[in-house]
Amino acid sequence: MTARLRRLLGVGAVLTFAWVGLGTGPAHAAPVEGTAAPALGVAALAAPTATGSTGGAVGLSDLGGSEEDGDTAAEDEGGDGPAGPAGPTGPSGSDGADSVNVNIDGLTDKPSTSVTLILLLTLISLLPAILLTCTSFTKVLVVLSLTRNALGLQQTPPNQVLAGLALFLSLFIMSPVLSDIYHDGVKPYLDGEATSAQAYEDGIEPLRAFMLENADDDEIELLSNVADRDLPQSREDTPTSTLIPAFILSELKDAFIIGFIIFIPFLIVDIVVSGALMALGMMMMPPVMVSLPFKLLLFVLVNGWGLIITALVGSYG
Q1: What is the DSSP letter of 230?
Q2: 80: phi > 0 → left, psi -120 to 50 → alpha, else beta; which?
Q3: I need a labelling partner for 313 at 20 to 30 A (CA). Which of 138, 215, 253, 268 fits?
Q4: Which residues in the chain show pLDDT less than 70?
Q5: Any idea what DSSP says for residue 46?
Q6: How is the chain split into domains, by residue range?
Q7: Residue 152, by phi and psi: left (phi above 0), alpha (psi -120 to 50) or beta?
Q8: How would DSSP label each residue in 53-111?
């Protein structure tokens, strides 16, 4: 009885020691794959209660194995942890076979399409003023209108017909000037060979030469005095702001002179018809109605439109 009590006390002491070791050891703090070993040791320690003192030896050996496994697991955790996943690698350099090269050399040498479009729209908006003030349109239109009045016709030809004829005659007269403007100013700018300021200076020179050739010195002097400016040393030094109104005044003066010459033969026809009607006593007959057919016949016989157009074109040298 005493021996059996001693065995039970010994088994209890071993179980207490094993329980304390399992609760405070490093294997309990961080269980890994080896944590199954202590469970086996505890199961084996329970066997001596039925088999005797031999079971105590087995339990101690199992306990020792469990402690060694816990120490091994702690040492494994104390080392370097598992390596993380590798990050993505960048694309490898191309050998040039499938590469794409973007070349922007010369991109700003020429004006862009948007800038060209803005300049074109601006030119179109200013075109009526340029046409009326810097070309031969005004002179041609005034001469054609005076010719219609000299014939005694009120609305024939219509104003639209006269304006169209004057427009195309102006294009015919100004075609050399327009060609020079394009080659000297517009084309170099579009090709990127000149800046906008340089293109303006080069392009306006042919137009200035045309206006200087057809502007009188009296008008240039008059406008310079009106503007309280010093007279230019030469005609080429005349400012554009003075040259344009001087050119318009000269064109109007020449148009009135040509109109006066056109009026003379038709005025003679009116005087002859009026005298004939007075001599015949036809006081109630309007002379204009009688003289109109004779004036139209005279104008057609002498090829009046051809003479007028020839005189207009010849007046610009």
Answers
A1: P
A2: beta
A3: 268
A4: 1-5, 11, 14, 17-81, 87, 90-112
A5: T
A6: 2-73, 113-314
A7: left
A8: THHHHHHHHHHHHHHHHHHHHHHHHHS--PPPPPPPPPPPPP-SSS------TTTTSS-
